[in-house]
Fold this protein.
Amino acid sequence: MTILAVTLVAAVLVFAVVRPRGLPEIVATAPAAAVVLAVGLVTPSEAWGEVTEMAPTVGFLAAILVLAHLADAMGVFTWIAGLLRHRARDDPKRLLTLVFGSAALTTAVLSLDATVILLTPVVIATARSLHMDPRPHSYASAHLSNTASTLLPVSNLTNLIAFSATGLSFLHFATIMALPWMVSIVVELILFRLFFRRHLVRPDAEPAPHPETAAPTAALSIIAATLVGFAVSGFVGVAPAWVAAAGAIVLGMVALQQGRTNLGRIAYSVDAWFCAFVLILGVVVAGVANGPIGDWIGSRLPTDTTFLGLLLMAVVAAVAANLVNNLPATLLLLAALGTGAPTGLILAMLLGVNLGPNLTYVGSLAIMLWRRVAARAGSPPDLRTFTVLALATTPLTLLAAVTALWLVL
């Protein structure tokens, strides 16, 4: 039974990576969940419990995907491109710093999917328009989609899944994770500038002049109000999903009124098949978590929040993310930690599953998606460059983030 459970998880992940004929992940996940139920690896009540526990998280994911689409439709990313061109001038090092800042804020507020899907093409096109090598900036977008996703519960699906287990409010979570977030971004920026120093040279050709783009004040104001709503939601007992839905509805009304999008595009942006995949994946992973593998992992995880305990937890989570992808790794490790686990260990686990996936192509769904987006934008990633960069940055970034978390705690 254990072998069957592991095989099913592996098959789902391979399908999600390859996506033959562009088929959605749910095509493999739904049959795998049915097999898990049919052979008794998970009982119907346990499966229902997994689904109901994940439902608010998936609802939030859908709302954020819509919010990101509407931000793009309202010209937020066109405005960002204008800012990058105007402020970078002819200095690729300055552009890299600006890309880091843009990607960090986009990931934190609109989630890592917005950074990968919407910001990556903007970054590549901006670098090209300035006659600069787009590779450092494209790789920065990929790495920051993971590295910068530790600040808020809404920045990453892994954070949302683990948020309730931390026992923290939205604001308290952000306060604790602020220092690890800033430290990891600064460390990664320094390492990027060293790694790509031969690529970050001033271009010979002068960039063509571009008119400044007016700031989309309505969209930015609604997004800012939504972020404030996230911060205060915990004090009034409102789930973040409702705040995200309210922000999407208000921004959607403005975008529809201005003719920036239509109901069909908004419905498509929800990505219902991917949301269904996330909802059902927990049932498939439960087949492993409820068996001897889950028990074996749980018995070997640290139980204290000393520096070594936090570091071990983060490393285990990072390794797990690169073996089975960060989303299943989060579900598996949360089950292994059990209820009542120290908050510090859960946060260290999040550092591992968020920063660790920068190590391989299959570490996170965001990196998988970035590969396709970057290739379509005319800057396909190179496996050797990605791997060497990952080995040079990920361990040090993770160590710096865990050290900062230990200091905060």
